[in-house]
Amino acid sequence: MPCPLCRKLFKIPSDGLGGLQHHFFIQHLIDARNASSKATDEVACQVCLEESEGSSEEISTATVYCIDCRQKLCERCSRPHRRWAGGAHQLKPLGAELEQELTQLRGSYCDKHNDKQVELYC
Predict the structure, then answer these.
(1) Backbone torsions φ then ψ of 71, nearest 5 degrees
(2) Which of the residues 30, 49, 93, 118 has the least number of beta carbons within 10 Å of its own beta carbon?
């Protein structure tokens, strides 16, 4: 079938459409659209949620995101992150701007090599 972008003919892999090569540009567009249309609903603090383990204890609402730990945290759980012995973690307020920033960070890393940024020929 023809590629929708360049019109070059290609064969669909035997394992189906999931076997097609990842298209970073298209994925970035989809992620950006999702981030901009996502409502800033209340999100549970990931630490409080994990600590409660099914108890009836009230779970606080997350207000910040720790870039270093990759966790959404409430005010109480974020306090230690501001004063770690090795240096304070990067904390960002939750919101649409953060979602767009995280989308850009995630989109710049390779799917095959998680520790490397995407290169022209990976």
Answers:
(1) -135, 145
(2) 93
